[in-house]
Design a protein that fits this description.
By secondary structure, the protein is of the alpha/beta class. About 30% of the residues lie in helices and about 20% in strands. It has 20 helices and 25 strands. Strands 13, 14, 15, 17, 18, 20, 21, 22, 23, 24 and 25 form an 11-stranded mixed β-sheet that branches. The chain has a 4-stranded antiparallel β-sheet with strand order 5-2-1-6, with helices on one face. Strands 3-4 form a two-stranded antiparallel sheet. The longest helix has about 45 residues, at about 1-45. The N and C termini lie far apart (about 105 Å).
């Protein structure tokens, strides 16, 4: 009897416990459902207007990630693959391009497809969507089964007013080359530069040196081991610019005809070389036994405080105050276990390579901003547009007339005087070949290269900050390749690209888009891993491709840290990217120069090239599809608004700096023209 009662009690207790568990589970489910319902109500009732506004502002054009493919090139006796003849091609207006002769040398190429067949979606002039399969085979191809004609170039014949030197073609080992739509690099956002004037110590070179001199008076050797003045050879040019005031950019950048400069008597048929020199400027000083970065250190406070670390000026960090904010607030903060930064005993040399067309304003800013920290500027220019149309060598012509004469000793000019048939039908190849040529030919003309030298690959409309370049020059231990988080402007520094419409961006209040462009790697990585193809730097995670696995393994075993690493973040940018930042006529020139596969190719639509229409796009901040909108920059005084050199000369660059309705621009012609 008793045992039966106990058994009944245990059964009842078990049932009660099971019922209680089910009740609590249902209660929990109800709470979760209630919270989710509240979130849905928040999104559907409170945010619809916000979401609709964001949709209208979004960039409609999709990013055509053609970088899923890699093109491999081999060479045969006689030259680099890909230099096909300039065959006949019919333009939309019926014109044809120049022709050259062909020879029977063989070349080979094939596609390596890493994903499924890519489908590109375009927008036509009337707003309708159009889908086109990429006109390439996605199946692996046997390289040995393909043979294409290889041209010889008549050295006595000129194209676009220039000739070809005999060293233009040469035998080279197997070369790898990536390809990617250049416009993809225009589809993110970025800006960042630390302006002088943020403190008494870096407001001007004279002020800074006076502080150093005054601080050093009365100090004994136990107070400071050495206080060294900055090398102000480059800063004297800045002071001269301040003294000149707002004069024309032509006056600032064109020298007297009687003055000697590097490209005054330049022979286009002569193969030139560039000899790299060591950077002997002083960047650090010792204070009470501490090694401090001069431009980032509050010298007075460091001496008074007697702390273990240097006292940093605003926007500089680290024990030696040598880490700029773009690095401090970039991905480096999340890689502390791997990144072990150490100061170099000798600054590494920095080479900045870029293809050019007609980006003169940004090039002038580049030279004035970076000439004292970049050791060589490798400039590649072609007498053909990316579309295959002959053009003059505009930069060379200006260099020969004395343009930027004070900087020409640091400029190494490389010409590309042919345009292949394959580039006419494959616009992506035309887009990337200038960069491939930059590494395969341009770097070979740089004498004295060391593996620890740094190569920075830029587009002509991208400008890294002086602070970030200086950091990469002075430190070891960071991963490579290095990506720059840039602020992205369109038409001028007065329009910015909005951030993607995501819940995270809405929650964090992020309004502007960050453009991440992989730009920098050491010469060792370029030569030993990337097969001398500098374009691979720009292609995200190209170093993971199976074709590069062996060379990557050897490079890592040698102690090198290979990992995509980004410096710069929103509000702590590593540079500027000013896309389509030209006058209306310059924008039309860019449309006409665009490669054949850049769809929609606005140069094929006459109504888009109307100057009044282009001017309306600049005025309204609207893209050429008449749908995407950009956000106005309301505060032109903000710290990352534009490169300081442009801001120092607002009259010369007013149309890039300020909206057409700004008082400086109202009822005035475009400047720069």
């Amino acid at each position: 009897m008793i045992s039966g009662l106990v058994l009944d009690f245990e059964i009842l207790s078990w049932r009660w416990a099971q019922t209680e568990w089910r009740r609590r589970r249902k209660l929990t489910e109800c709470i979760v459902i209630l919270v989710m319902a509240q979130v849905v109500v928040l999104l559907c009732v409170i945010m619809p207007q916000h979401l609709e506004k964001k949709r209208q502002e979004l960039i409609i054009e999709e990013q055509r990630r053609v970088g899923k493919y890699i093109v491999l090139f081999t060479t045969t006796e006689g030259g680099i693959l890909g230099q096909e003849s300039h065959g006949e091609r019919t333009r939309p207006n019926g014109q044809t391009s120049l022709q050259t002769t062909q020879s029977g040398n063989a070349s080979h190429s094939h596609w390596v497809n890493t994903e499924k067949k890519t489908v590109r979606q375009d927008v036509t002039a009337d707003g309708e969507e159009r889908r086109d399969d990429l006109a390439y085979s996605n199946d692996p191809v046997d390289i040995s089964a393909i043979s294409e004609p290889f041209p010889t170039v008549d050295l006595n014949r000129s194209h676009g007013g220039t000739g070809v030197d005999e060293g233009e073609f040469y035998e080279d080992p197997v070369l790898g080359r990536g390809f990617q739509d250049e416009f993809v690099t225009h589809k993110s956002d970025g800006n960042g530069f630390l302006f002088y004037g943020q403190s008494d110590f870096n407001s001007s070179p004279e002020t800074f040196n006076r502080v150093l001199e005054s601080v050093s008076v009365g100090l004994t050797s136990d107070k400071t081991d050495s206080l060294v003045k900055l090398d102000d050879s480059a800063d004297k040019k800045v002071n001269k610019r301040h003294a000149l005031g707002n004069v024309s950019s032509n006056v600032l950048n064109i020298t007297d005809e009687t003055q000697f400069y590097k490209y005054k008597d330049y022979d286009i048929n002569h193969i030139n070389e560039f000899v790299l020199k060591n950077d002997e400027k002083t960047y650090f000083t010792k204070i009470d036994g501490k090694e401090c970065f001069i431009r980032g250190t509050d010298i007075e406070e460091t001496i008074v405080s007697k702390g273990k670390a240097c006292s940093c000026l605003q926007y500089y960090f680290g024990d030696d105050c040598g880490i700029p904010e773009a690095v401090w607030f970039g991905q480096s903060s999340r890689l502390t276990g791997e990144v072990k930064l150490t100061r170099r005993k000798i600054p590494r040399r920095v080479i900045n390579g870029l293809p050019v067309n007609h980006e003169f304003a940004m090039f002038e800013a580049r030279m004035h901003e970076l000439s004292d920290v970049v050791d060589a500027f490798l400039i590649v220019e072609s007498n053909y547009t990316s579309h295959g149309d002959p053009k003059e060598l505009s930069f060379l012509k200006k260099f020969q007339s004395g343009y930027l004469a004070q900087f020409q000793e640091k400029i190494h000019y490389v010409k590309l005087l042919f345009f292949s048939n394959e580039s006419r039908s494959n616009g992506w190849r035309a887009d990337s070949y200038l960069r491939f040529y930059m590494g395969s030919k341009g770097l070979k003309q740089m004498k004295g290269l060391r593996e620890d030298d740094l190569f920075i690959l830029s587009d002509a409309d991208e400008l890294p900050t002086r602070e970030v370049v200086t950091f990469l020059k002075l430190y070891d231990g960071f991963p490579e390749p290095v990506g720059f988080g840039l602020r992205w402007n369109v038409f001028g520094f007065f329009w910015q690209v909005p951030a993607d419409m995501t819940f995270i961006n809405w929650l964090s209040g992020t309004k502007m888009k960050l453009l991440v462009v992989y730009s920098a790697a050491t010469i060792g990585m370029v030569q030993r891993v990337l097969l001398n193809n500098v374009f691979y730097i720009r292609k995200e995670r190209a170093w993971e491709h199976p074709q590069l696995a062996d060379s990557l393994g050897y490079y890592r075993k040698a102690g090198h840290l290979v990992k995509d690493w980004v410096v710069g973040s929103v509000d702590h940018y590593a540079g500027w990217h000013c896309s389509w930042c030209f006058s209306p006529t310059g924008i039309v020139q860019k449309m006409d120069s665009a490669q054949a596969n850049d769809k929609p190719r606005w140069g094929d639509y006459p109504e888009k090239k109307n100057i009044s229409y282009v001017m309306s796009r600049i005025w309204k901040g609207r893209w050429f599809d008449d749908q995407a909108s950009y956000l106005p920059v309301k505060d032109t005084q903000e710290r990352f608004y534009a490169p300081s050199y442009l801001l120092e000369h607002p009259e010369s660059y007013r149309s890039l700096l300020y909206h057409p309705g700004h008082p400086l621009n109202r009822n005035r012609t475009w400047q720069p023209p």
